[in-house]
Amino acid sequence: MKRIEVVVWAKDVVCKSHICEVLQSSPAIAVVSQPSSSEHAIVSDAGALTPAEKRVLRAFLKYDGAKEVAAALGVSYATVKKHLERIYDKLGVRSLHRALVRAISLRLIEADDISQKRYSSNTT
After folding, report:
1. Does domain 49-121 have CATH number 1.10.10.10?
2. Is the separation of the CB atoms in 88 and 60 below 8 Å?
3. C-alpha span between 51 and 11 (Å, rounded)
């Protein structure tokens, strides 16, 4: 029997432990920390990102850097950087690009937001 590798992200250890326990009861599922192949699934607690963290990610779809995002959101540069650290940790990534890809794939932010990027509206 082929097993599906599943990576679990949750907001706290107790929640993650419970999800893993339920998934591991199926012989078709292998819970892993890193997938070994391209055939895997991701289980995520969609509430893992706060509304502020989601706003920061969406802003990066429209603006080019942390300083620009900070100005657009009316927060400090340090606040944006702190949100990014937490986002990376929660999504299990180490780059903004990976965070955006994962957030879109998990439907934490909408892919439609990409079309609103500032430079895409500069058509002649």
Report:
1. yes
2. no
3. 14
Scanning 26-114, the segments in alpha helix (DSSP H) are: 51-62, 66-73, 77-91, 96-105
- By C-alpha distance, which of 104, 61, 122 is closest to 69? 61
| 1 close to 27: Cβ distance less than 8 angstroms | yes
Q: Which two tokens stand for residue 97?
A: 């690009």
pLDDT (0 to 100) of residue 77: 98
For the chain (length 124 residues), average pLDDT per consecutive 10?
75 79 83 71 67 94 94 97 91 88 82 54 42
Contact yes or no for 76/70 (Cβ under 8 A)? yes
Cα(44)–Cα(19) distance, integer angstroms: 10
Give the length of the chain.
Answer: 124
Residues 6+ positions from 21 with CB-CB distance below 8 Å: none
pTM, whole model, 2 decimals?
Answer: 0.60
Q: Where are the domains of the chain?
A: 4-45, 49-121
Contacts for 86 with CB less than 8 Å, ≥ 6 apart: 50, 53
